C-alpha cells in the first residue's frame, strides 16, 4: 500500500541513496533484492529494534527487527552467508525526541538509558536467534546516522517549535508586527 520498503533515504532528485550494504553486495558482484521481491534484504524503511519505537508498527509489523528476523528464519537460512544486522538509528531518533519531552534532566537521562538498555537487550536476542539458526557470519555496524531519519527531523522540529513557543510566550506582542 505505497509503503517504502527499501531502507534508504532520498537524494534531492528523488532517487534513493545506496546504503553501505548495497555497496558491499556490489563489491561481491551481487545485488541486494528486498525480501518483498523475493530477495534476502529484510530491512524496511523506518525499521526499529524495539517495535514500540515506531508508531507505524501496527500498520507495518515488518518494521520491528524481530519480525524481519523471524521472516528470514522461516525461509531456508543461508548459514554461511554474510549477514548484516544494522539497526538502531530510527530507535535512537525516537528515544531522543521523546526524551526532550521529559520534565527534568534526571527523567530525560533515565528515559534514554532505559531505552538504550531495551534496545541492546532486544538486539542481543535477535543476534542470538540468528546464531541458534546456525548463522556464524554477522556484521553489526554502529548505529546508523540518526540525523538522516525522517522521524528525527519531524520530532526535532516539533520539539524545537514547542520550546520556542514556550520560551517566547508573552515576549512577543501583536503590536510588534506591522
TrEMBL record:
It comes from Pasteurella multocida. InterPro entries: GDSL, SGNH_hydro_sf. This is Esterase. It holds the Pfam family Lipase_GDSL. The lineage of its organism: Bacteria, Pseudomonadati, Pseudomonadota, Gammaproteobacteria, Pasteurellales. It comes from the Bacteria. GO terms for molecular function: hydrolase activity, acting on ester bonds.
Amino acid at each position: 500500500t505505497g509503503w517504502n520498503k527499501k531502507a534508504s533515504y532520498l537524494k534531492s532528485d528523488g532517487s534513493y541513496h545506496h546504503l553501505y550494504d548495497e555497496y558491499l553486495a556490489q563489491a561481491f558482484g551481487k545485488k541486494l533484492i528486498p525480501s518483498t521481491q523475493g530477495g534476502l534484504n529484510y530491512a524496511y524503511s523506518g525499521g526499529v529494534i524495539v517495535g514500540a519505537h515506531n508508531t507505524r508498527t501496527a500498520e507495518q509489523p515488518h518494521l520491528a527487527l524481530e519480525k524481519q528476523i523471524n521472516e528470514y528464519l522461516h525461509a531456508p537460512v543461508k548459514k554461511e552467508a554474510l549477514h548484516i544486522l544494522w539497526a538502531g538509528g530510527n530507535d535512537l531518533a525516537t528515544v531522543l525526541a521523546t526524551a526532550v519531552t521529559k520534565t527534568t534532566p534526571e527523567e530525560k537521562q533515565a528515559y534514554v538509558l532505559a531505552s538504550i538498555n531495551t534496545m541492546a537487550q532486544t538486539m542481543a536476542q535477535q543476534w542470538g536467534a540468528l546464531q541458534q539458526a546456525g548463522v556464524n557470519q554477522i556484521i553489526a555496524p554502529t548505529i546508523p546516522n540518526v540525523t538522516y531519519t525522517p522521524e528525527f527531523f519531524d520530532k526535532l522540529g516539533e520539539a524545537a517549535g514547542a520550546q520556542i513557543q514556550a520560551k517566547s510566550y508573552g515576549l512577543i506582542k501583536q503590536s510588534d508586527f506591522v
